[in-house]
# Entry
Amino acid sequence: MKRAIDVNKDLYQETTTIGNKVYSTDDLFNRVKDKEVFKVPLCSIDFTQMPWGDIVNIYQFCEHYARCNDADMEYPVILAPHGGIINGFHRVCKAVINCDDYIDAVQLSEFPEPITVYDKE
# Structure
């Protein structure tokens, strides 16, 4: 049985940024904790996005690679209402590296109110 959404505080980020909106990660987790877990084909995931804009050198790449290796696959990824990944990119990468066909997911029915909205420049 898959675990309910729980937070690994060692790898936890308090906020999740999507576009120009910043959400409380706790709020996102709370909204999906009772949702049914389902399988998503990896081939249906959009791999054109770069979720980690902080990668500017090999060392930073290696940090993310290590997080992918350490990703706990017992936790489902969180999908936005439109199906994009909100939380779980390291788990998706691990699934790809492991040549898995599917990954477990839960999906938001709607976004919560953001805690911050940045002006678009």
